Amino acid sequence: MILVTGGAGFIGANFVLNWLATNNEAVINLDKLTYAGNLNNLSSLKDDTRHLFVHADINDKATVNRLLQEHQPRAIVHFAAESHVDRSIHGPAAFIETNVNGTFSLLESVRSYWQALPDAEKAAFRFLHVSTDEVYGSLEANDPPFTETTPYAPNSPYSASKAASDHLVRAYHHTYGLPTLTTNCSNNYGPLHFPEKLIPLVITNARAGKDLPIYGDGSQVRDWLYVSDHCAAIRRVLESGRPGETYNIGGWNEKTNLNVVHTICDLLDELQPKANGSYRDQIRHVKDRPGHDKRYAIDARKIERELGWKPAESFETGLRKTISWYLANDAWTEQVLSGEYKNWVNLQYQNQA
Ligand code: NAD
Ligand code: DAU
After folding, report:
1. What is the pLDDT of residues 79-95, one digit of tens each?
2. Given ligand 2 and candidates 10, 11, 78, 85, which is best to mutate, with the most ligand atoms within 8 Å of its CB?
3. Which among 132, 180, 231, 334 would be 20 to 30 A from 164, CA to CA?
């Protein structure tokens, strides 16, 4: 079996669902259930004996050690993190606690477990660390995309904490020989995406008749990847990636924020037209994010060349699927919006115009 951390969040839950849909290998899913963790994401696995959910913090060494000893996983896929840049600006401490200290604590537990394994299992073991393109910093309009050798230059407390965790993972391979794999992925979107992030926030606000907040002039660029493509890439890296290597994952899909929001509005105009006017009428430019990175773009040629992975979805097909998922899953959104989310929206968006 494999052990996944953060498997109740957006990408982790998509990964666990995809894994069990295509594979019979069991999953232990360790998640702290922060505001971003949601057991509803995993409700279809309620009676699936291949899925064992454990409510715990990656910093809880006793629980992590017990799970490793009891279940003897052949691999760890580490998603658990604080993931929202704006939250890291308001409160960086949680990002250090989970992304840095938590990854360190997990690595220490895994190191002890791995060192005691018999030789064949030791050689086959993998620790896959899921990271982000934000560790590379920000690109100018004409810069080439980030490669695996682009120097780290994180700009937000979130990306700095992820960079620190990447460095720890690298050091555990270099120093102890732990068979690690690191993936640095661009912006994901798709089903189960928490509506604090741009795409689900815009879909949710548009449908509720609320403002669609665009930070600054909306000219910032992100490289969007449909979440199931990210999950497929992680599976390929886990299967055939070379220990100690890092792999960039991206969609070859650079869009300005304004372009993304316009496309969502146009698709909603088609799929769920308003009585009057267009969803574009709800767009509002608001105060910019402090230290806002201008552009991210991933050069994903290494994973394509070495592991044969390429994204299956275009932005148009992926976004259509995403919007259709939100239109068909109001109960999921309502449950999310009724919780801690309200406090966040007040903190982040009040007095922003
Ligand atoms: P998310 O915020 O939706 O989910 C994070 C999950 O981790 C939640 O279920 C949460 O409960 C859990 N968690 C948080 N702290 C924990 C702790 N201390 N112990 C155990 N569980 C904890 O995040 P996501 O968007 O699914 O991102 C998953 C991973 O992928 C993160 O490491 C993130 O840095 C990385 N990533 C995300 C994107 C993206 O666009 N969302 C892109 C590239 C990389
Ligand atoms: O690049 C990968 C990263 O992508 C991941 O590592 C992060 O976990 C993930 O959150 C994401 O970070 P971003 O900051 O790029 O994503 P977010 O959806 O928060 O914002 C996307 C862009 O949209 C960014 O330029 C900020 C802008 N934005 C965002 C929000 C929430 C707005 O203009 N208005 C908004 O209300």
Report:
1. 999 999 999 999 999 99
2. 85
3. 231
25 is catalytic: no
For residue 353, the model assigns a pLDDT of 63
Q: Which of the following is catalytic: 158, 226, 279, 296?
A: 158
Question: Can you give the three-state secondary structure of the chain, one letter per residue?
Answer: CEEEECCCCHHHHHHHHHHHHHCCCCEEEEECCCCCCCHHHHHHHCCCCCEEEEECCCCCHHHHHHHHHHHCCCEEEECCCCCCHHHHHHCCHHHHHHHHHHHHHHHHHHHHHHHCCCHHHHHHCEEEEEEEHHHHCCCCCCCCCECCCCCCCCCCHHHHHHHHHHHHHHHHHHHHCCCEEEEEECEEECCCCCCCCHHHHHHHHHHCCCCEEEECCCCCEEEEEEHHHHHHHHHHHHHHCCCCCEEEECCCCEEEHHHHHHHHHHHHHHHCCCCCCCHHHHEEEECCCCCCCCECCECCHHHHHHHCCCCCCCHHHHHHHHHHHHHHCHHHHHHHHCCCHHHHHHHHHCCCC
Atom from ligand 1 closest to the CA of residue 33? 11
- Give the ligand 1 atom nearest the CA of 158: 34
For ligand 2, atom 7, the nearest C-alpha belongs to: 83
Model confidence pLDDT, tens digit, residues 112-157: 999 999 999 999 999 999 999 999 999 999 999 999 999 999 999 9
For atom 30 of ligand 2, the residue with the nearest CA is 198
Q: Hey, what domains does the chain have and what are their CATH numbers?
A: 2-189+226-250+292-312 (3.40.50.720)
Predicted TM-score (pTM) of this structure? 0.98
Identify the pLDDT of residue 342.
Answer: 87
Q: How far is the CA of 198 from the centre of ligand 2 (A)?
A: 6
